[in-house]
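re: that chain from earlier
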Amino acid sequence: MKDTFNIKINNDDIHLASCLANIVSIEHNTQAYSHTLTVIGQAITPYLLKGVLDKLKNVFSPVSAAFHHLHQQMGDDAIEIRGQVINAKPEHIKSLLGDVSDAYHLDVGLQASRPSLSEPGLLVMDMDSTVIAIECIDEIAKLAGVGEQVAEVTARAMRGEIAFNDSLTHRVACLEGVPIDHLNQIRDGIPIMPGIQTLLSHLKKHRWKLAIASGGFTFFADHLKARLGLDYAISNTLSVKDGHLTGKVEGEIINADVKARTVKALSEKWQIPSSQTVAMGDGANDLIMMAESALGVACHGKPLVNEKADVAVRVGSLHSLLYFLDK
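^ sequence. v structure.
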């Protein structure tokens, strides 16, 4: 890293994004390092980058800074900072990273290893509030007139306060008698998260396999599998009779354990090394599949998930996941 982090704060250039290249190189130096700190945002300035490193100085010692290989290709600044982690508990580092993100409105992640974008890999995604910007069961409940009742249970389940199986059974029971036409209405206006198409297209170019593992419903997951060109989708099946929901789920409930099994099963099926697996989600029932993967990514997640995931996208769109991958 060029020795410019001692620039005086009153220097006119310190607040200019155009001057970032004065302190960040095109390539890293050859110094040894244990971790990579990735900093992602819009129009990052020398001042902001210095602020990030100052806040982390007690846990991370930088040795080299270079632009990520996707820097500015998707409209973001992305910087990789190599360095050594100083003795610190992981939970303390995660807390600091959250503080940094909040202070500077940037996404930051610290990783000891990273899957490679250029090698075939596997991405398994949660659906509700991850691939799409809604919780489908809450939307069905609104149309059925039990929205508040169901939404509260959903929120508690996503925070990990209620066992997922129990919460799903309770919520689905409230939907008894809802006509399938209501599901069609939600499907037709389903809001896809910003950045998902960019994320998927880049991964497809590099022969990655893409899947949804959702505690939501096949009616929507199968639709998204086809619409987005995914390789696989697994989710819960709502029981239907005479064009109306019965208030029951058919077959095994897709919970946190099943999601984790899905990551393992798909990686074995497609012969993808475990080091090339990524899981992405926002709720507590995504944590086990994140732990099963080489890289667990929280996307606009609940506080517990941001704390436990390997990295967290708090600010940017879903394509920001790409910046946490190596070349």
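Confidence is low (pLDDT under 50) at residues 1-8.
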